[in-house]
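Summary for the steering committee. One of the milestones for this cycle was to obtain a three-dimensional model of the protein with alpha-D-glucopyranuronic acid bound, which we needed before selecting residues for the alanine scan. The sequence and ligand used are listed below.
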Amino acid sequence: MRNTTFLRAGAVAAVASLALVACGSGDDDAAGGGGESKTLKLALNQTEQHPSFIALENFGKRLKESTGGRLSIQVYPNETLGAQQETLQLVSDGTVDLAIVSGTQLENLNKDFSVFNMPLAFTSVEGQMKVVNDPKTVGDLYSSLESSNKITVVGAFTQGTRNVYSKKGPVNTPADLKGQKIRVQESDLHTSMISAMGASATPMAFGEVYTALQAGVLDGAENNEVSYVTQKHFEVAKYYSRTNHLVGLDYLVVNSDLVKGFSAEDKAAFDKEWAAAWAEHTDLWGKETDKAVAAAEAAGAKFNDVDAAAFEAALEPLKAKFLTSDVQKKLYETAQAAG
Ligand code: GCU
């Protein structure tokens, strides 16, 4: 990972300016020790309206209170610090403290993460959140990148159910996607997933999708209703078809050296407030999804159901290809059992 990611110019400038911000704020890197305070920098690729931004801002406020001001969080939204592939690298390097990254990014570092990115692995947000925040199930997985990449996974937010949307017209069966260029996240599994669903997969960073749709480089994309609206994709691709192919996951990652340097008291506060953050996020998710659908419909977007059995059948062969080890099969069974 370390040698393969390149920072784009905008992100380089933003990260360079972080050094100045840190100097100007009088922060001390010895977090949790000697009464010093530290503002943790958290990278996010969503807007300020997104439930993740709201829950993370509140996480920061509560953390500050619980630690008597020793730890607080500054959330940088809208890919200000770079796209997820880049911010994951920055957390690994210790330039950025925390980031929210999609499961697809972690799959590129450890294939076992791809189990939870499998289409139809989870069928409900409630079942998903039980599994992905249970240390007995995910403890080994979440610490698996510490020695190789200095990345610790703290826990997960739901991405809700992802569906396909297109500029061309409503999708009912895989045949309707034939010849359409559909954006996917940078993941082998998701590239295979969209191909199996009948389309031509185009991997691309999140922040580039609107312009690519507008320019006709893409015919469509796949995402949840909240991102469809907060990213304004409904303006340029108005047919949203409920393929329900995936309940996705975002992970909170932290630099391993940083978190290991927390005092026991501050680590306990961090874990407690994170648990409150994902609970708040899960609660917000359903409400914000309903609001997003109403807003998109009011702006002329069209939502439709699809031939679910046809998509399920198309996706079935992915299991044999991507669930290869015993660890992966066991995690998949746990996900399926949770619903
Ligand atoms: C969702 C998810 C993001 C992800 C994005 C994408 O919005 O929450 O973490 O980056 O999908 O499709 O890239």
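Key point for the committee: Residues 59 and 276 are 8 Å apart (CA to CA).
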